[in-house]
Structures are given as C-alpha cells and as structure tokens.
Amino acid sequence: MKKVADEICGYTYRTATVAASTVSLEELEQLKVTVGFTPEDERFLRMAGEVLADQTKQIVEHWRSGIIAGIPNLARHSRTPEGELIPRYLAQSNLRFEQWILDTCLRPYDQDWLNYQQEIALRHTSLRKNQADAVQSTTYVPFRDIVAFTAVLNDTIRPYLANKGNSPDEVAGMHRAWGRSLQLQLALWSRPYLDLAGTSCEW
Amino acid sequence: MKKVADEICGYTYRTATVAASTVSLEELEQLKVTVGFTPEDERFLRMAGEVLADQTKQIVEHWRSGIIAGIPNLARHSRTPEGELIPRYLAQSNLRFEQWILDTCLRPYDQDWLNYQQEIALRHTSLRKNQADAVQSTTYVPFRDIVAFTAVLNDTIRPYLANKGNSPDEVAGMHRAWGRSLQLQLALWSRPYLDLAGTSCEW
C-alpha cells in the first residue's frame, strides 16, 4: 500500500487496535447505491490516487495553513485550550491527513476501510480526540463543522486533480468520484456522533 | 417570493406553525465561514434561481422517478408499509421539493430560513414524518441516506444549470454555490437527528 511516510504516528489502519465498525458491509453497499458510487468511480479514484500521490503535502498545507488556520473556530481544534500551537500534534495529524487522501483513492472499501472510517470519526469525538497524539486540545470537533468542511475538501481538490495533464473529462470524473466518496465517508462518520449523542450532543 | 404553485400543501414557510430553530444566527454565520459560503455565492444562487425556475418540475421528476424510484431503500419512504404507492403524498411532497429548489436559491438565509431548515429535518425524523400529508409510510428517513443523497442532489443539478446559455464560468459558479448551500443545509439538518438520538437513533 502506498504510504506518505515510512512512519505515520497514530496511523493504525488494519491493526488490532482498531475496533470493528458498527456499520455492516451490507449497509455500506446500500450507501454506495444511494450516493451513486459505481465501479467507474473506483477507477477514477485509482487515477486520482496516482495524480495526487506527490501532491498530498501541498494539499494538506493548503487546507491547514491556507484555510483552517484562518478560521478561529476550526483552528482551535489543533491548539491548546489557551490557543497555543502544538507543532507535534499538527505534524502528526497532517501526515495522517495526507495518508487519508491516498486511502480515499487507493484502498478497497472493505471491512478494514469501514473499521478505519469509524476510528477516524471517533478521533473527532470526545471519546478519542487528542488520545492518538497524547495532547491537550479541544475535547471534540463539532459534527456540523465536519459536514461543512467536507464542502471545502471537495471544492479545493479540483486544481490538484487537473495538475497532471489529464483530459477535462478525466478531471471531471475524478472530481465526481472524490465528491461521492467524501459524502459516503461523511455518512459513515455521522454514526459515532449519533451513537454518542444520548450522553453527549457534539453537534 | 417566487412559488412553484399557488397552493403548496404543507408548505409552512414563515408561518406560526414553524418553531424557532435551536440553531442561532451566530452559529449559522460560523457555518457559512466553515463551508466557504460568500456573498459571491449568494449572487450565483440568485442567478441559479432564475435559471432553474422553469425547470423545477423536471428536476424533481428526475430525482424521484429517475433515481429514487429505482432504489428500493429510498423509494419505500414515500410508500405504504406494504410498498404501495401513495400518489397524493408524492404529488404534495414533490411540490415542496420543487419549492425547496427555489428557496435554496432565492430566499435570504435569515431566521425564517433557519427555522424552516429545522422543520424540513424534523419532517424526515420520527417526530414529524408523514404528518404534513397525513399518510402512513416509513416512520423516518435514516440520516445516512440524507447525507448520501445530498451527493446526488449536487451531481445532478449541473446540466440544468447549464441549460440556459450561461457561460462556463457562470455555470461553475452556480454549481459551486449550490454545493456549498447543500452542505450548509445538511449541517443544519443534522441537528434534529442528533437531538433525537438519545431516545431514537435514526442513523
């Protein structure tokens, strides 16, 4: 599997520390149908993985420094309660963010992928945030901000998809597949937030 | 305000029957920032409203008959528990669906709009589904299907935006604004589902 670095701290994909998803593979298949995700989208995502592979650092910099850092409401989630930077937290979570781009494009959407989607979501809730990096920061990322920022992840990827000389149809196809995958993932990420909402509403 | 019909059964926008949203205008403004929604997007949405105004019937037909009807998991939400069609329910909710297109493009995103977003979401949960039309159907639409189908609402609108001879830049701008608005609305729709999840997890 293609990785953005030899060591990615806290990246536990396919390890025993990742719990089984409470979402079934059958529910995942149904979600694919609802989102309109087809085998053609899988092919376009593989293409996108090749196109984006050497741009992941630049893309995550764009998201983190170019966008999130300028929105106090979002930036606080990687800072201390006093608003100070936590460089190690940023560095480590940025690497995982980079790897997530590749995983979105290149991993098969199987049980391991499903389990890791749940892990990703949990790490944004009060159940797990800050733990992978042993830091002190906000206790959770509100679900609404994840929904809203997904639009940014979708809008901003297009120029990077167009950077390698693919035809306009290929760029459009890769972008469509990327958007569908993100919305599919968002549907999966919503599950831990809903499961948790009875004790802690992290909207 | 532009309406798709003189009488739209169950369309209660700006009436006293619509409760105040539990989301504040300040939270809405923060969400706009997160989603990247700007005054330019507002202008593009106004343009989209003009472009789509005489196409709403065709668009909703496309979504309902062309897509939802072919996905049993989604189609069941407008049918009886035995799977029979409920023509009146479809006709009435289709008109509201058409009006929602115009409201997305042409309404100011103010307190009334915020309140009606909550009303729309509640009508998909077990708290309110079927009530506006006094029908018997599924008790709720799972939140995950709303997230996933938002990708379809976003993918499929583009050709309609391109139908009136606007420049490629205008079509791209209208489409970007539409996608941002949908994700903003999705963030708002998630609130009633999270509030309800302690007693009924409708993921």
Description of the molecule:
Two copies of one chain form a homodimer. With 203 residues, chain A is mainly α. Chain A contains nine helices and no strands. In chain A, helix 6 crosses helix 9 (168-196). The first copy, chain A, is globular and about 50 Å long. The model of chain A has no long low-confidence stretch (mean pLDDT 97).
Write the SSE topology.
The structure is a homodimer of 203-residue chains.
Chain A: H1 25-35, H2 39-52, H3 56-67, H4 72-75, H5 87-106, H6 111-122, H7 143-155, H8 158-161, H9 168-196
Strands of chain A, total number: 0
Mind describing the biggest β-sheet of chain A?
A: none
The average pLDDT of chain A is 97
The residue ranges of chain A in which pLDDT falls below 50 over 5 or more consecutive positions are none
Tally of individual helices of chain A: 9
Shape of chain A: globular
SSE series of chain A? HHHHHHHHH
N-end to C-end Cα span of chain A: 34 Å
